[in-house]
């Protein structure tokens, strides 16, 4: 079974939007979390998780198994998704 | 408030008190030299302050980012229109023009954000969201020759 693709995004961020669009165009199923729209407690928890993974608060963050891609980067996405 | 030049004008966007370039008068338009916001001058309790021109409209943020880029001699990312859309979405969802690529919503991250006002573009070549890029006009004209 392929890894679940998860994207942490901001609803207002154009790079996040491009990444979501790219995944959709490539018919990659993904689970998206718009961090800015979470309630305070949940947002804090997710931000901590992101900081642990990436060391910062930059968006989007795409998680594919053990691979993490920060920012909109089509070449890296292709590589980690085997496209 | 008529004796001598006023020392400063308070900008409600970036909270700076900046020295105006020209004479001030009630209702006159001036641009904040720190964040690029266009302001309508108002005489208040012993100091001049600015009222945000066209507050919270599409025109306001477009004029502000253009004004800021002009002040600093920056140019824009090819993502400019998409980033402006993000700024409008921030206004609609969170009340003001906060950086669309950040999760924080406070005056430090009003666009242009505090790190950008403080010289991030000079240091890193671009601001956090990549809207403002360091000017390369001189290089370009050098290449053109
Ligand atoms: Zn200002």
Structural class of chain B: alpha+beta
Q: How much of the residues of chain A is beta strand, in percent?
A: 15-25%
Give the fraction of residues assigned to helices of chain B: 25-40%
How big is the Rg of chain A? 12 Å
Number of domains of chain A: 1
Under CATH, the topology of the largest domain in chain B can be stated as Ferredoxin Thioredoxin Reductase
Structural class of chain A: alpha+beta
Largest interface, C-beta within 8 A: A-B, 15 and 15 residues
Can you walk through the features of this model?
The complex is a heterodimer of chains A (83) and B (145). By secondary structure, chain A is an alpha+beta fold. Chain A contains three helices and four strands. Chain A has helices at residues 14-25, 40-54, 74-81; strands at residues 5-9, 30-34, 61-64, 67-70. Chain A has a four-stranded mixed beta sheet with strand order 2-1-3-4, sandwiched between helices. In chain A, helix 1 links the parallel strand 1 (5-9) and strand 2 (30-34). Chain B folds into two domains: 9-52, no CATH class; 73-136, Ferredoxin Thioredoxin Reductase, CATH 3.90.460.10. In chain B, the strands form two sheets. In chain B, strands 2-1-5-4-3 form a five-stranded mixed beta sheet. In chain B, strand 3 and strand 4 (38-44) form a beta hairpin. The interface between A and B is medium-sized, with 15 and 15 residues. Zinc ion (ZN) binds next to loops of chain B.
């Amino acid at each position: 079974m392929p890894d679940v693709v998860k994207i942490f995004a901001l609803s207002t961020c154009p790079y996040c939007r491009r990444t979501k669009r790219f995944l959709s165009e490539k018919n990659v199923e993904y689970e998206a979390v718009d961090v800015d729209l979470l309630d305070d407690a949940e947002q804090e928890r997710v931000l901590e998780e992101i900081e642990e993974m990436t060391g910062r608060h930059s968006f989007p963050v795409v998680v594919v198994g053990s691979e993490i891609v920060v920012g909109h980067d089509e070449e890296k996405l292709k590589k980690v998704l085997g496209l | 408030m008529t004796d001598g030049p006023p020392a400063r004008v308070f900008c409600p966007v970036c909270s700076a008190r900046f020295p105006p370039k020209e004479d001030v008068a009630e209702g006159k338009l001036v641009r904040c030299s720190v964040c690029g916001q266009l302001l309508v001058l108002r005489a208040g309790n012993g100091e001049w302050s600015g009222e945000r021109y066209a507050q919270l409209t599409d025109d306001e943020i477009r004029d502000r980012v253009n004004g800021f880029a002009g002040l600093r001699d920056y140019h824009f990312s090819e993502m400019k229109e998409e980033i402006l859309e993000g700024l409008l979405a921030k206004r609609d969802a969170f009340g003001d023009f906060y950086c669309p690529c950040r999760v924080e919503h406070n005056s430090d991250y009003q666009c242009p954000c505090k790190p950008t006002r403080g010289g991030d573009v000079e240091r890193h070549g671009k601001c956090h969201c990549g809207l403002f890029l360091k000017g390369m006009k001189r290089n370009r004209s050098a290449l053109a020759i």
